[in-house]
């Protein structure tokens, strides 16, 4: 059961990551918000909080799964 949930979460995270990258690429050719931070304008991928969350979530999920497996044995 835990393996199935990890695989499902990994699939969701990969799809969200790809979707975010596509949205970032499409937004680069449009007008930017006037109140945007200069760092976000210079580094649209690295300074994107949603993209950071998409990368950190699977890592935290895997660490949590390892902890659950360790504590239940």
What would you say this structure looks like, in words?
This protein has a domain of 37 residues. It contains 3 helices and no strands. Helix 1 packs antiparallel against helix 3. The two termini are 15 Å apart. The mean pLDDT is 77.
Number of helices: 3
Number of strands: 0
Mean pLDDT: 77
Strand content: under 5%
Structural class: mainly alpha
What is the approximate shape? Answer: elongated
The oligomeric status of these chains comes to single chain
Major sheet, described briefly? Answer: none
**What's the order of the H and E elements?**
HHH
Structural key phrases:
73 residues, 3 helices, mainly alpha
Brief rundown of the structure:
The protein is mostly helical and 73 residues long.
Strand and helix map with partners:
Layout: H1 2-27, H2 38-42, H3 49-71
Helix pairs in contact: 1-3
